[in-house]
Protein backbone atom coordinates (compact mmCIF):
# COMPACT_ATOMS: atom_id res chain seq x y z
CA UNK A 1 0.00 0.00 0.00
CA UNK A 2 2.73 2.47 1.02
CA UNK A 3 4.95 1.55 -1.90
CA UNK A 4 2.08 1.99 -4.37
CA UNK A 5 1.21 5.40 -2.94
CA UNK A 6 4.89 6.42 -3.13
CA UNK A 7 5.08 5.42 -6.78
CA UNK A 8 1.89 7.31 -7.61
CA UNK A 9 3.20 10.40 -5.81
CA UNK A 10 6.45 10.21 -7.76
CA UNK A 11 4.56 9.81 -11.02
CA UNK A 12 2.33 12.82 -10.26
CA UNK A 13 5.28 15.03 -9.32
CA UNK A 14 7.14 13.91 -12.42
CA UNK A 15 4.08 14.59 -14.57
CA UNK A 16 3.84 18.12 -13.18
CA UNK A 17 7.51 18.67 -13.93
CA UNK A 18 7.11 17.31 -17.46
CA UNK A 19 4.13 19.58 -18.23
CA UNK A 20 6.00 22.53 -16.73
CA UNK A 21 9.00 21.77 -18.93
CA UNK A 22 6.83 21.76 -22.04
CA UNK A 23 5.26 25.06 -20.98
CA UNK A 24 8.60 26.72 -20.25
CA UNK A 25 9.98 25.64 -23.62
CA UNK A 26 7.15 27.34 -25.49
CA UNK A 27 6.59 30.40 -23.30
CA UNK A 28 7.89 33.76 -24.60
CA UNK A 29 8.35 35.26 -21.11
CA UNK A 30 12.00 34.40 -20.68
CA UNK A 31 13.13 38.02 -20.83
CA UNK A 32 10.80 40.88 -19.93
CA UNK A 33 11.43 44.58 -20.56
CA UNK A 34 12.55 46.51 -17.49
CA UNK A 35 10.97 49.85 -16.56
CA UNK A 36 13.83 51.78 -14.95
CA UNK A 37 15.14 55.34 -15.06
CA UNK A 38 13.96 57.03 -18.27
CA UNK A 39 12.32 53.89 -19.66
CA UNK A 40 8.81 54.69 -18.40
CA UNK A 41 6.79 53.44 -21.34
CA UNK A 42 4.66 51.20 -19.15
CA UNK A 43 1.89 50.63 -21.68
CA UNK A 44 4.17 48.46 -23.81
CA UNK A 45 5.82 45.26 -22.59
CA UNK A 46 8.41 43.29 -24.55
CA UNK A 47 8.74 39.56 -24.12
CA UNK A 48 11.64 37.51 -25.49
CA UNK A 49 11.48 33.74 -25.61
CA UNK A 50 13.25 30.84 -27.26
CA UNK A 51 11.09 30.81 -30.36
CA UNK A 52 9.48 34.24 -30.62
CA UNK A 53 9.36 37.75 -29.22
CA UNK A 54 6.10 39.49 -28.34
CA UNK A 55 4.98 43.07 -27.75
CA UNK A 56 2.04 43.54 -25.43
CA UNK A 57 0.30 46.91 -25.35
CA UNK A 58 -1.71 48.01 -22.34
CA UNK A 59 -2.79 44.43 -21.51
CA UNK A 60 -5.14 44.53 -24.49
CA UNK A 61 -3.28 43.77 -27.69
CA UNK A 62 -0.33 41.46 -28.16
CA UNK A 63 1.71 40.80 -31.28
CA UNK A 64 4.17 37.92 -31.55
CA UNK A 65 6.68 37.11 -34.25
CA UNK A 66 8.90 34.10 -34.72
CA UNK A 67 12.61 34.72 -34.98
CA UNK A 68 13.77 34.92 -38.57
CA UNK A 69 16.94 33.00 -37.81
CA UNK A 70 18.63 31.22 -34.93
CA UNK A 71 21.54 33.65 -35.32
CA UNK A 72 19.21 36.45 -34.22
CA UNK A 73 19.24 34.97 -30.72
CA UNK A 74 21.89 35.62 -28.11
CA UNK A 75 24.28 32.72 -27.35
CA UNK A 76 22.51 31.84 -24.10
CA UNK A 77 19.10 31.63 -25.81
CA UNK A 78 20.56 29.58 -28.67
CA UNK A 79 21.94 27.02 -26.24
CA UNK A 80 18.78 27.17 -24.14
CA UNK A 81 16.65 26.21 -27.11
CA UNK A 82 18.55 22.96 -27.63
CA UNK A 83 18.84 22.14 -23.94
CA UNK A 84 15.14 22.72 -23.27
CA UNK A 85 14.20 20.47 -26.20
CA UNK A 86 16.49 17.79 -24.79
CA UNK A 87 15.01 18.24 -21.31
CA UNK A 88 11.48 17.92 -22.69
CA UNK A 89 12.33 14.68 -24.49
CA UNK A 90 14.06 13.24 -21.42
CA UNK A 91 11.18 14.15 -19.10
CA UNK A 92 8.63 12.56 -21.44
CA UNK A 93 10.78 9.44 -21.76
CA UNK A 94 11.18 9.24 -17.97
CA UNK A 95 7.42 9.59 -17.49
CA UNK A 96 6.68 6.76 -19.93
CA UNK A 97 9.33 4.49 -18.39
CA UNK A 98 7.90 5.19 -14.93
CA UNK A 99 4.42 4.16 -16.10
CA UNK A 100 5.79 0.90 -17.50
CA UNK A 101 7.70 0.10 -14.32
CA UNK A 102 5.04 0.98 -11.79
CA UNK A 103 4.00 -1.78 -9.44
CA UNK A 104 0.33 -1.56 -10.40
CA UNK A 105 1.10 -2.06 -14.11
CA UNK A 106 0.70 -5.65 -15.22
CA UNK A 107 3.00 -6.55 -18.10
CA UNK A 108 3.29 -9.87 -19.87
CA UNK A 109 6.27 -11.97 -18.68
CA UNK A 110 7.45 -9.27 -16.30
CA UNK A 111 9.16 -9.86 -12.96
CA UNK A 112 9.48 -7.66 -9.91
CA UNK A 113 13.25 -7.51 -10.36
CA UNK A 114 12.87 -6.22 -13.93
CA UNK A 115 10.34 -3.63 -12.80
CA UNK A 116 12.75 -2.51 -10.09
CA UNK A 117 15.41 -1.80 -12.71
CA UNK A 118 12.83 0.03 -14.83
CA UNK A 119 11.81 2.22 -11.88
CA UNK A 120 15.47 3.02 -11.20
CA UNK A 121 15.97 3.95 -14.86
CA UNK A 122 12.94 6.26 -14.70
CA UNK A 123 14.30 7.94 -11.58
CA UNK A 124 17.69 8.55 -13.16
CA UNK A 125 16.04 9.95 -16.29
CA UNK A 126 13.92 12.32 -14.19
CA UNK A 127 17.01 13.60 -12.37
CA UNK A 128 18.89 14.00 -15.65
CA UNK A 129 16.02 15.92 -17.26
CA UNK A 130 15.80 18.23 -14.25
CA UNK A 131 19.54 18.92 -14.37
CA UNK A 132 19.40 19.58 -18.12
CA UNK A 133 16.56 22.05 -17.57
CA UNK A 134 18.36 23.86 -14.76
CA UNK A 135 21.34 24.69 -17.00
CA UNK A 136 19.55 27.00 -19.50
CA UNK A 137 17.26 28.54 -16.88
CA UNK A 138 20.14 29.47 -14.58
CA UNK A 139 22.29 30.57 -17.52
CA UNK A 140 19.69 32.98 -18.89
CA UNK A 141 18.90 34.29 -15.39
CA UNK A 142 22.60 34.95 -14.73
CA UNK A 143 22.94 36.78 -18.07
CA UNK A 144 19.91 38.96 -17.34
CA UNK A 145 21.19 39.89 -13.89
CA UNK A 146 24.70 40.62 -15.18
CA UNK A 147 23.38 42.84 -17.98
CA UNK A 148 21.01 44.61 -15.59
CA UNK A 149 23.86 45.82 -13.39
CA UNK A 150 26.23 46.48 -16.28
CA UNK A 151 26.57 50.29 -16.73
CA UNK A 152 27.81 49.89 -20.30
CA UNK A 153 24.48 48.48 -21.53
CA UNK A 154 21.74 50.85 -22.61
CA UNK A 155 18.75 51.08 -20.29
CA UNK A 156 16.35 50.23 -23.10
CA UNK A 157 18.19 46.95 -23.69
CA UNK A 158 18.09 45.79 -20.09
CA UNK A 159 15.68 43.01 -19.20
CA UNK A 160 14.17 41.43 -16.10
CA UNK A 161 13.51 37.82 -15.14
CA UNK A 162 10.39 36.52 -16.85
CA UNK A 163 7.73 34.15 -15.57
CA UNK A 164 9.14 31.30 -17.65
CA UNK A 165 12.34 31.27 -15.59
CA UNK A 166 10.47 30.94 -12.29
CA UNK A 167 8.30 28.19 -13.75
CA UNK A 168 11.44 26.51 -15.07
CA UNK A 169 12.95 26.35 -11.58
CA UNK A 170 9.76 24.83 -10.20
CA UNK A 171 9.53 22.29 -13.02
CA UNK A 172 13.18 21.28 -12.60
CA UNK A 173 12.66 20.85 -8.86
CA UNK A 174 9.63 18.62 -9.51
CA UNK A 175 11.60 16.48 -11.95
CA UNK A 176 14.51 16.03 -9.55
CA UNK A 177 12.11 15.31 -6.66
CA UNK A 178 10.32 12.66 -8.73
CA UNK A 179 13.64 11.06 -9.63
CA UNK A 180 14.69 11.00 -5.98
CA UNK A 181 11.39 9.37 -5.00
CA UNK A 182 11.77 6.59 -7.56
CA UNK A 183 15.43 5.99 -6.71
CA UNK A 184 14.70 5.84 -2.95
CA UNK A 185 11.77 3.48 -3.58
CA UNK A 186 13.95 1.17 -5.63
CA UNK A 187 16.66 1.13 -2.95
CA UNK A 188 14.20 0.42 -0.13
CA UNK A 189 12.49 -2.27 -2.21
CA UNK A 190 15.80 -4.05 -2.81
CA UNK A 191 16.57 -4.03 0.93
CA UNK A 192 13.17 -5.46 1.82
CA UNK A 193 13.54 -8.04 -0.91
CA UNK A 194 16.94 -9.18 0.41
CA UNK A 195 15.55 -9.48 3.94
CA UNK A 196 12.41 -11.26 2.82
CA UNK A 197 14.21 -14.06 0.97
CA UNK A 198 16.04 -15.57 3.96
CA UNK A 199 16.20 -19.37 4.11
CA UNK A 200 13.01 -20.81 5.68
CA UNK A 201 13.20 -23.01 8.79
CA UNK A 202 12.24 -26.64 8.18
CA UNK A 203 9.71 -28.13 10.59
CA UNK A 204 8.88 -31.84 10.16
CA UNK A 205 5.23 -32.77 9.98
CA UNK A 206 3.44 -35.05 12.43
CA UNK A 207 3.46 -37.99 10.04
CA UNK A 208 7.21 -37.58 9.47
CA UNK A 209 7.83 -37.58 13.23
CA UNK A 210 5.79 -40.76 13.65
CA UNK A 211 7.62 -42.40 10.78
CA UNK A 212 10.96 -41.50 12.38
CA UNK A 213 9.90 -42.99 15.70
CA UNK A 214 8.73 -46.21 14.03
CA UNK A 215 11.98 -46.59 12.13
CA UNK A 216 13.93 -45.95 15.32
CA UNK A 217 12.06 -48.64 17.31
CA UNK A 218 12.38 -51.11 14.43
CA UNK A 219 16.10 -50.63 14.25
CA UNK A 220 16.50 -51.19 17.99
CA UNK A 221 14.50 -54.46 17.85
CA UNK A 222 16.93 -55.85 15.33
CA UNK A 223 19.72 -55.83 17.89
CA UNK A 224 17.75 -57.93 20.41
- Terminal CA distance reads 64 Å
Chain-averaged pLDDT: 78
Q: What's the Cα radius of gyration?
A: 30 Å
Overall geometry comes to elongated
Q: Report the major sheet.
A: 5 strands, antiparallel
The CATH topology of the domain at 1-27 and 74-193 corresponds to Butyryl-CoA Dehydrogenase, subunit A, domain 3
Low-confidence stretches: 195-203, 218-224
Structural category: alpha+beta
Order of helices and strands: HEEEEHHEHH
How many β-strand stretches? 5
Q: Going across the major beta sheet, what is the strand order?
A: 4-3-2-1-5
CATH architecture of the domain at 1-27 and 74-193: Up-down Bundle
CATH class of the domain at 1-27 and 74-193: Mainly Alpha
- Summarize the amount of helix as a percent range: 55-70%
Number of helices: 5
- Strand content range: 5-15%
Keywords: Cell junction, Cell membrane, Membrane, Tight junction, Transmembrane, Transmembrane helix
Function: Claudins function as major constituents of the tight junction complexes that regulate the permeability of epithelia.
Pfam families: PMP22_Claudin (PF00822)
Subcellular location: Cell junction, Tight junction; Cell membrane
Amino acid sequence: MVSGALQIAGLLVGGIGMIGTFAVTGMPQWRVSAFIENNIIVFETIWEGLWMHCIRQANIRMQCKLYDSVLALSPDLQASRGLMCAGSVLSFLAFMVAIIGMKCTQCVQSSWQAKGHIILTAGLLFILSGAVELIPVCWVANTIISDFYNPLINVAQKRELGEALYLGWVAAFCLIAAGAIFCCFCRCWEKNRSYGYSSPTYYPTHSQRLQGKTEGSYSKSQYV
